[in-house]
C-alpha cells in the first residue's frame, strides 16, 4: 500500500513461497504472493487424497486465511505468463506486476524420461487436482469391475501399477492396498480382494533411496506382507491405454498406471527466459540468487543449488525462509549468505502402524513407534487448526473402523453442469 | 443372486430411492439400486456447500456404504438411457437391466418459466456438482473484485441476485450474507463488506409460501437486518451475461444470478415413454403406481400424485417407503394402499441463531430455539456417522469463530489435468 516500501513479489504459494512470505512479516516491505490457486496444499499427504483417505479440503487451506494477520502481505490469484527480468516485471493474466525483489517457488513437475506413452497414459500425483482425478478413476475401477462380463475383462480394472519406489510410490501403494483390504472389501461384495493386484515397479535395486537400507528393507517386507508386489531392478519400456510393458518384456494389462518415478523443474520457466538444467531446474548461486539478477531468488524444487539438496517439503520451506532473509540482507546493504540444507529427518508411512523414520541423518526407526511419530509430526505440520481436526478425525476413523470418509466420486466433468459464460471473470 | 427371487430395480439414490431400498431390507426380493453418481447427497444442506460453509464430502455419502449391511441390495453405477415398460427392462449405458418391479425416484430439475436467458446465464442449485460450481464462482468474484480497476468494474462482481423466495433462496441468501460478513471480510481487506449487495427477488407478495405468514415476516426482517435486500412482488424479465432486468424495468448488473425459483420433473422421462404433466412430473395413481403398469411406482419429486404433496425431502422419503411397501403388497397378492403425506414439519435457517420451524402444520417457532431445533434435526438426519461429526465440527467452527473451512477453489477444469483416455471404463 505504501509507495515508499520496496515490493517483494513471491510466485507460488507452496512451502517455499509461503514460508518466504511468513518470514517477511513485520519487515519494511510490501509482499505480494501470487498463485494460480487460492489455496496452499500440503503436498506430503497428497497420496492420501488419491487413496480416498482424506478429502481434498483436509490438506488444502486458503492462502488469504493463512496470511490474514500479516499486514504487509497481499494475495493475488493470477496465472504467471512470463517475466521481464530487465524491467523487474512479472507478466500475469491480470496485467503486469512490477517488483523490487522476486522470489520464485513454483515447484516441480513430473518427468517421464522419454518412456513411450508414459505422459499420455499414466496418472501423475503432484497436484490436488491430479489427486482427485486419480481418486475418482480408482473408485470407478471397482464399479467397472463389478459390471465386467468375465474375469478377463475384470482383471485390468483390478490391476494397479505404481511406477517409482520413492516415498510417494511406497506411501501410495501402501495406502491403496489398505483402501482395498478395508472399505472396498466391505462395500464391493462382488470383488474378491485377493483378485486385486498392486505392483510397485522401481528401476534401482532398492526402495526409498534416501533412507538407510535397513528401513528400505523393512518397507519392502511390510508392503509384501500387505499384498503389494514389489519389483525392483525393473524398468518400464512403455505405457499404453491397456497397460505397461516392462523392460524385460513382461506385459501387465492395467487400467491404472500411476507415475511417481521422476521429478523435474517446471518447463514453463524456460519460456520465461530463465536458464534451466537438463532436468528443467534453475541453477542458482550458493545464496539462491539468480546469477546476474541479485534481486531474484529461486527456491524450492525449482532451484538447482550447487550443493545438492533433496526435492522435499522441508528443503523448500528452508529455502523460502532463506530467500526472505536474503532480501532483508540486501535491504540493509549486506550480501545474502549461502544456503545450507539442514536435514531434520525424513519419514514415510507404509500402512497402519507401519512407517519408517530417519532423523538428523542418524537415528532410524520403523514400525509402530515410527508410525506414531509420523502421525504426530504431520498433525503439527498441517496448516490450519480446522484442517488438523478434520484430518485427525478422518485418520482416527480409518484406524478404528478401517473405514474411509472420502469415497465420493464428485466429478464436475460427468455430466457437465451448466457453466455460465462469464465464469472466469 | 438367487434366480427365484423377484427383482426390484430402483432408479435414483435420492431420498425416495434410498428409503425404498432400506424398506426392502430382509424382504424376499433382490434389490438393484441404480444411480449415475456413487453417492447420496443430503439435498437440504446443498446451499451450505454453495455458500462455502460445508465441504461436498460433508453432505455426500457412498451408496454402497449405506447399503453395506443389506444383503439383498446391490448398487449399480450407471446412467439410465430409457425404459421398456412392456418388456420390463431398464436400458443403461452398461447394458439392459430386467426388473419385476420398478421404483422410479430420479428427482427434479430447475424450471425457468421461459424467462429469456435464465437457463443460460444463471446458476442452478439442485446437485452437488452445481453447488461446487457456484461456490467456486462466488469465491472467484472476490478475487476478481480485488483486482478490478475501479468501483464500476468491481460492482457486478459484488452483486449477487438470488431469484426465488422459497426455502432454498432464503437459506442461500442468508448463508451467503454470513459468508461475506465473516470470512470474506476477514480475508479480503481490499473489499468493504458494505459494498457487497445480495438481492433476493420473489414474484409473489411474500417469502416462504409453505410457512405461516408470521414466520415469513420474521424471515424477511431477519434477512433485512443481516443486509440482504428483499424484493417481493418482483418478477424477472430476462437474464443475460451482465445481469438481470426485472419486470418493472429495473436493471441490476451482476456476475452472479442464482435461480432457485422453479422446480419440475426431469424432462428426460418423457423420452422414456412416461406420461408427463406440464411441469414435467409423472401423474400417478393414489398408490403411486403408474396407470396400466401396476409393477411400476413413481416417487419423490418426479411423482405427481392426485392429492398434492410438496416437493420436499420428507415427502420423497415417505413416498419411497410407501412404494417399497406397495411392492411387498403386490408380492402377497394385495392391492397397494393409497399414499398419504404426513406433514411432520418444515424448517429453514436464515442465519446464525435464526431459523423458522413449523411443526405438524400447527406449531410455529422462530429465532434461537428454532435454530437449535434445526441444528438437532439436521444432525440426526444426516446420513452416516462420519459426515455428522465433520458437519458438526464445521458448524461449530463457523459458530464459534465465524469462520468457514470450505473456501478452497478446487476446479479440475482450470487448468485441465491429464485425463488418460481410458477414464470412463
Structural commentary:
Two copies of one chain form a homodimer. Chain A is 31% helix and 24% strand. The first copy, chain A, contains eleven helices and 25 strands. The radius of gyration of chain A is 22 Å and the shape is elongated. In chain A, a hairpin with a 4-residue loop joins strand 15 (243-246) and strand 16. Chain A has two domains: 7-36 and 78-110 and 264-332, FAD/NAD(P)-binding domain, CATH 3.50.50; 118-261 and 345-401, FAD/NAD(P)-binding domain, CATH 3.50.50. The first copy, chain A, starts with 6 loop residues before the first strand and ends in a 24-residue tail after the last helix. The first copy, chain A, has helices spanning 15-23, 46-50, 63-66, 118-121, 128-146, 151-154, 167-187, 213-226, 313-332, 367-381, 385-401, and strands at 7-11, 30-35, 39-41, 60-62, 73-77, 80-84, 89-92, 95-98, 101-104, 108-110, 159-163, 197-201, 228-231, 236-240, 243-246, 251-253, 256-259, 263-265, 282-283, 289-290, 293-298, 303-304, 345-351, 354-359, 363-366. The longest helix of chain A is centred in the middle third of the chain and has 21 residues, at 167-187. In chain A, the strands form eight sheets. A six-stranded mixed β-sheet of chain A has the order 5-2-1-9-21-20, covered by helices on one side. In chain A, strands 13-12-11-17 form a four-stranded parallel β-sheet. By secondary structure, chain A is of the alpha/beta class. At the A-B interface, strand 4, strand 5, helix 4, helix 5 and helix 7 of A face strand 4, strand 5, helix 4, helix 5 and helix 7 of B.
Amino acid at each position: 500500500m505504501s509507495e515508499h516500501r520496496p515490493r517483494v513479489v513471491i510466485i507460488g504459494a507452496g512451502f517455499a513461497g509461503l514460508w518466504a512470505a511468513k518470514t517477511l512479516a513485520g519487515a519494511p516491505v510490501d509482499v505480494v504472493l501470487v498463485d494460480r490457486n487460492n489455496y496452499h496444499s500440503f503436498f506430503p499427504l497428497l497420496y492420501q487424497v488419491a487413496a480416498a483417505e482424506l478429502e481434498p479440503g483436509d490438506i488444502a487451506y486458503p492462502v488469504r486465511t493463512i496470511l490474514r494477520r500479516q499486514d504487509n502481505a497481499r494475495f493475488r490469484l493470477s496465472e504467471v505468463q512470463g517475466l521481464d527480468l530487465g524491467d523487474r516485471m512479472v507478466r500475469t493474466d491480470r496485467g503486469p506486476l512490477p517488483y523490487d525483489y522476486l522470489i520464485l517457488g513454483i515447484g516441480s513437475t513430473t518427468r517421464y524420461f522419454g518412456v513411450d506413452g508414459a505422459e499420455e497414459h499414466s496418472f501423475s500425483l503432484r497436484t490436488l487436482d491430479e489427486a482427485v482425478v486419480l481418486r475418482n478413476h480408482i473408485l470407478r475401477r471397482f464399479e467397472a469391475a463389478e459390471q465386467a462380463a468375465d474375469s478377463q475383462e475384470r482383471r485390468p480394472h483390478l490391476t494397479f501399477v505404481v511406477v517409482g519406489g520413492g516415498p510417494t510410490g511406497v506411501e501410495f501403494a501402501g495406502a491403496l492396498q489398505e483402501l482395498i483390504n478395508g472399505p472396498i472389501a466391505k462395500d464391493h461384495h462382488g470383488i474378491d480382494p485377493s483378485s486385486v493386484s498392486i505392483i510397485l515397479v522401481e528401476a534401482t535395486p532398492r526402495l526409498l533411496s534416501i533412507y538407510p537400507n535397513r528401513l528400505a528393507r523393512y518397507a519392502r517386507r511390510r508392503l509384501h506382507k500387505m499384498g503389494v508386489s514389489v519389483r525392483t531392478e525393473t524398468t518400464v519400456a512403455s505405457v499404453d491405454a491397456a497397460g505397461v510393458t516392462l523392460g524385460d518384456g513382461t506385459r501387465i494389462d492395467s487400467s491404472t498406471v500411476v507415475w511417481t518415478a521422476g521429478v523435474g523443474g517446471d518447463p514453463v520457466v524456460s519460456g520465461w527466459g530463465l536458464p534451466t538444467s537438463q532436468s528443467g531446474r534453475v541453477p542458482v548461486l550458493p545464496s539462491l540468487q539468480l546469477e546476474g539478477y541479485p534481486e531474484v531468488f529461486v527456491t524450492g524444487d525449482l532451484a538447482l543449488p550447487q550443493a545438492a539438496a533433496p526435492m522435499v517439503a522441508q528443503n523448500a520451506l528452508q529455502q523460502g525462509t532463506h530467500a526472505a532473509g536474503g532480501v532483508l540482507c540486501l535491504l540493509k546493504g549486506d550480501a545474502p549468505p549461502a544456503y545450507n540444507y539442514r536435514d531434520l529427518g525424513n519419514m514415510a508411512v507404509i500402512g497402519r502402524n507401519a512407517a519408517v523414520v530417519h532423523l538428523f541423518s542418524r537415528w532410524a526407526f520403523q514400525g509402530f513407534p515410527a508410525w506414531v511419530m509420523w502421525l504426530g509430526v504431520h498433525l503439527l505440520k498441517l496448516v490450519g487448526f480446522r484442517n488438523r481436526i478434520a484430518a485427525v478425525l478422518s485418520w482416527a476413523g480409518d484406524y478404528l473402523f478401517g473405514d474411509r470418509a472420502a469415497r465420493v466420486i464428485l466429478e464436475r466433468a460427468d455430466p457437465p453442469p451448466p457453466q455460465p459464460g462469464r465464469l472466469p471473470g
